[in-house]
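EI: anyone free to look at a 88-residue chain?
SC: sure, send it
EI:
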Amino acid sequence: MLDPELLEILVCPETKQPIRLADPVVLQKLNAAIAEGSVSNKGGEPVSERIEEGLIREDNSYLYPVRDDIPIMLIDSAIPLSMDTASD
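SC: here you go
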C-alpha cells in the first residue's frame, strides 16, 4: 500500500494532473482485459502482468501501475483506460 503522504505529492509526469488510487472495480476490469491480451501501454508494449495496485490520472484516461509498492510513473508505462474500464 502506498504511503498517503507520497500519494499527495505525486502527479502525472505528462500533464501534472493529480492522481488517485485505482478502485478495485477498475483493476478487476483492467485485469480481465490484460488476461484477454488486449492491453498495451502508452509506449505500445503489451501488458501481460496483472495490476494489483495502480494510480489513475484525474481525467481517468491513464493508469500508472504500482509494482512492489513502487509507482511506475513513466509516461510510456501508462496504461490507457477506456471509458468502460475507468468508470467505477
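EI: The chain is about 25% helix and 20% strand.
SC: 👍
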